[in-house]
Amino acid sequence: MATDYSVICKLGGYVNSNPELISSYPSLDQSLKTEILPKCFPIGAKTGDFIVEKYRKYVVLSYIFRVNQTADRDDIFSLSVLLNKKDKTEIYKPVLQSLIDKLEQNDLLNEHVLTKNQRAIFEGMNQEKNVTISNVLIDLSKVFKEIKSKILKPEIKVKGSFL
């Protein structure tokens, strides 16, 4: 299992703001950016929502969350991963939520930290390894292991013969 792309979108907390794609890793072509924005940040998305959409050969899994602002209203972001259709979104949902929760607990949840560390987050999710952001360890390997043990059932090996 692996993600092919990681996308960060934002809806600013100011009047007349519109969703915008602020970063992707690996980089997307401009034409793809306009196509994928409504899949990553659909109209009506609320904080705490998980959005699952189909896009070409991918399943787009987005987690919507709030980033507190001192002025105006809070910004709303989506962190999205483009998965192969055969991958299970149930595995990635808790991983995304755990990542965002850990950043928020350590006052690291902001646009700069997300975009600066997007590659490390992408690689951590692909390789199911831990990510360190501003000296804070985010134990993604443990989350992956726990979720997989609950969701993925081991295949039963049948022994003997049947007549």
Summarize the SSE layout with pairings:
Elements: E1 3-11, E2 20-25, H1 30-40, E3 50-55, E4 58-67, E5 75-84, H2 89-105, H3 111-116, H4 118-127, E6 131-133, E7 136-138, H5 140-151
Antiparallel strand pairs: 1-2, 1-5, 3-4, 4-5, 6-7
Helix pairs in contact: 2-5
**Class inferred from helices and paired strands:** alpha+beta
Number of domains: 1
- Major β-sheet annotation: 5 strands, antiparallel
Low-confidence segments, given as residue ranges, are: none
Taking strands numbered 1, 2, ... along the chain, how are they ordered across the largest sheet?
2-1-5-4-3
Overview of the molecule:
This protein has 5 helices and 7 strands. Helix 2 (89-105) runs antiparallel to helix 5. The termini are far apart. It is α+β, with helices and mostly antiparallel strands. The protein has one domain (3-151): Beta-Lactamase, CATH 3.30.450. The model has no long low-confidence stretch (mean pLDDT 90). The longest helix has 17 residues, at 89-105.
Quick synopsis:
With 163 residues, the protein is an alpha+beta fold.
Please tag this protein with its features.
alpha+beta; two-stranded antiparallel ribbon; 34% helix; 5-stranded antiparallel beta sheet; globular; 163 residues; Beta-Lactamase
